[in-house]
TrEMBL record:
Name of the protein described by the UniProt record: Polyamine aminopropyltransferase
Organism: Leptospira idonii
Family, as annotated: Belongs to the spermidine/spermine synthase family.
Molecular function via GO: spermidine synthase activity
GO biological process, one term: spermidine biosynthetic process
Length: 281
């Protein structure tokens, strides 16, 4: 009998996506969420939280490279980086490809995400064992609030705005992150798809201009996420994302998705998306 995993998050809107599963590898319920690990025919191993796809072997690089390298290549000298969420380790892995980095603080609310990633996704997770990585298992909003002026770059590698991640899409959290930045700091946050989630993105850009003088929205393509793309906010007190020219001499080796050309192109939006994604000026 064939087994198919169907992501049902968008089902009430008439949308779903299914993948043929060759084997169920693990399934656990944590105090925060349900974690499932599948082997799939087309995308290799798949990691889901509460029935929503987070990571697959085949396409994780397009997400992790873009959430990390756009802000890291935009900052003149990123030394201290905070990753909120991101317990699979892929974002940490990409951050550590920059030799200027002295510390990476991983703040993940659910330690089980890290533990199961070590077991099933070592190509991502083993980066979290690096001596530069400091682990905190805590609420990301609380951690940002308690670490004022500490970080050059903050990356919010969150799930969708439901359950434990809902607070990460609210104005108080963005104000807490702003206070945790150094003067030239940059934030990048997972910010949904402009095809499916215009209401969520629009709500973000209602308050973002009140907090950050420089801001933007960019995206990457990823087939296992709803609509095949996922976007990110770019937020800063000092760095205009639309004026950044990546320094090729700082480009990490062996990347599969990010390039200086992709960096520039990722901020170019279709006309319909411009109606709810604000740009300064």
């Amino acid at each position: 009998m064939e087994i198919w995993y169907t992501e049902k998050l968008e089902l009430e809107k008439g949308r779903a996506v299914s993948y043929r599963v060759t084997k169920t590898l693990d399934s656990i319920q944590t105090p925060f969420q349900k974690i499932d690990i599948f082997e799939t025919q087309s995308f290799g191993r798949m990691f889901t939280l509460d029935g929503v796809t987070m990571v697959t072997n085949k396409d994780e690089h397009s997400y992790h490279e873009m959430i990390a390298h756009i802000p890291m290549m935009s900052h003149p000298n990123p030394e201290s980086v905070l990753v909120i969420g991101g317990g699979d380790g892929g974002t940490v892995r990409e951050v550590l490809k920059h030799p200027s980095v002295k510390e990476v603080v991983l703040c993940e609310i659910d330690k089980a995400v890290v533990d199961i990633s070590y077991q099933y996704f070592p190509e991502c997770a083993d980066a979290m064992k690096d001596k530069k990585v400091i682990h905190h298992y805590d609420d990301g909003a609380k951690f940002a609030r308690e670490n004022k002026g500490r970080f050059d770059v903050i990356l919010v590698d969150s799930s969708d705005p439901v359950g434990p991640a809902e607070v990460l899409f609210k104005e108080p959290f963005y104000r807490d992150m702003a206070s945790a930045l150094k003067p030239t700091g940059i934030i990048a946050t997972q910010a949904e798809s402009f095809w499916y989630h215009g209401d969520v993105i629009s709500s973000l850009f209602e308050f973002i201009p009140k907090i950050f003088p420089e801001y933007g929205y960019y995206y990457t393509t990823i087939p296992t996420y709803p609509s095949g793309i996922i976007g990110f906010t770019f937020l800063s007190n000092a760095i205009d994302p639309y004026k950044v020219t990546p320094d090729i001499s700082r480009l990490p080796k062996g990347l599969k998705y990010y390039s200086p050309e992709i960096h520039k192109a990722a901020f170019v939006l279709p006309e319909f998306a411009k109606s709810f994604i604000k740009r300064k000026g």
